[in-house]
Design a protein that fits this description.
Keywords: DNA-binding, Transcription, Transcription regulation. Pfam families: HTH_11 (PF08279), WCX (PF25583), WYL (PF13280). GO terms for molecular function: DNA binding; DNA-binding transcription factor activity. With about 300 residues, the chain is α+β, with helices and mostly antiparallel strands. The chain has 4 domains: about 1-55, Arc Repressor Mutant, subunit A; about 65-110, no CATH class; about 130-220, SH3 type barrels; about 225-305, Alpha-Beta Plaits (2-Layer Sandwich), CATH 3.30.70. Helix content is about 40%, strand content about 25%. It has helices at about 1-10, 15-25, 25-40, 70-85, 90-100, 105-110, 130-140, 220-225, 240-245, 270-275, 290-305, and strands at about 45, 55, 145-150, 160-170, 175-180, 185-190, 195-205, 225-235, 250-255, 260-265, 280-285. α2 (about 15-25) packs across α3 (about 25-40). The longest helix is centred in the C-terminal third of the chain and has 19 residues, at about 290-305.
Length: about 300
């Protein structure tokens, strides 16, 4: 019943069939459950016709008593994490409001036990300049103002961009911007670490229909165009780094403790930089032409010191 109430609160209107499919029951059971909710004092309304269904009165909110101490603590942890990442007083206020959902006894208990869940949304090494970019884009999004900046893509090509910003995305430990690019005339995803000379303009823009991020196919321009099946052999001393960098399914531990990593990889500047960062602790076993390129780059490094 609680799950059904929460679903109704989060959706404008839901048909009996959709509810039945969601909870794997018959529509007859759904009608009976709606009657039970109404008798319990929850204002559920039924609408007839092809666009009909059930909905809860717009002003109705769920009582705090339906949330456990653990659930409220998780919400508080998430709000605190967002607040530290964005440095926005709005989230400090939201933190206070969510905390009021706790009873006095719960607050005492919460204050005397260590945090069991911590959201730290600040990427390692994030400086003030990076935070300023995030906050500037946030203001531009909220005020529907254009932003202009210099952007360097993965091929080290630099260009001036004017964009209509729509959303900030924290993926892993990297910030991205989802925006409409007036230069390319389409929605693009920009990595904030490659954004320079950012300025929020006074000119406003009319919001467009925004494509869902789930519908995006991976753009080869973001990572380079060459994919190859590569085999790398790592020494046991760098085991911890290999586990951080590659999916477990790609890693095989050999009898001598060395690690063989095999899979499809993007062959770009990042790849060669990654391989060279391991020094003598890695060898490219396959394909041969990639191993030759690593050797060529290593010789260039040596030559730069000899000269």
């Amino acid at each position: 019943m609680l799950a059904m109430t929460v679903l109704l609160l989060n959706r404008r209107r839901i048909s009996a069939k959709e509810l039945a499919d969601r909870f794997e029951v018959s529509t007859k059971t759904i009608y009976r459950d709606m009657d039970t909710l109404s008798q319990a004092g929850i204002p559920v309304f039924a609408h007839q016709g092809t666009t009909g269904g059930f909905e809860i009165m717009e002003q109705y909110t769920i009582s705090r008593q339906y949330l456990s101490l653990g659930e409220i603590s998780s919400i508080i942890a998430a709000v605190k994490g967002i607040g530290t990442a964005l440095q926005d007083a709005t989230y400090a206020s939201l933190h206070e409001k969510v905390t009021t959902l706790l009873h006095q006894s719960d607050k005492h208990q919460e204050g005397h036990r260590p945090e069991s869940l911590v959201f730290d949304l600040n990427p390692w090494g994030l400086g003030q300049a990076a935070r300023d970019k995030v906050n500037t884009f946030r203001r531009a999004i909220e005020d529907t103002k254009l932003a202009r900046f210099s952007y360097m893509n993965s091929n080290s090509s630099e260009s001036e961009r004017t964009v209509e910003p729509y959303a900030l995305i924290l993926k892993g430990n990297v910030w991205y911007l989802h925006a409409y690019c007036t230069l390319r005339r389409q929605f693009r995803v920009f990595r904030l670490s490659r954004v320079q000379q950012l300025v929020m303009l006074e000119e406003r823009f009319e919001r467009r229909a925004v494509p869902a991020m789930e519908s995006y196919t991976w753009d080869s321009e973001w990572i380079g165009r060459l994919l190859a099946r590569v085999t790398l052999l790592f020494q046991p001393q760098v085991r911890y780094r290999v586990g951080d960098s590659f999916h477990p399914d790609m890693i095989a531990t050999l009898e001598d403790g060395s690690l063989r990593v095999e899979g499809e990889m993007t062959i770009d500047e990042w790849f060669f930089g990654m391989v060279l960062s391991y020094g003598s602790q890695v060898r490219v076993e396959h394909p041969f032409h990639i191993a030759e390129e690593v050797v060529r780059r290593a010789r260039q490094i040596v030559a730069s010191y000899e000269n």
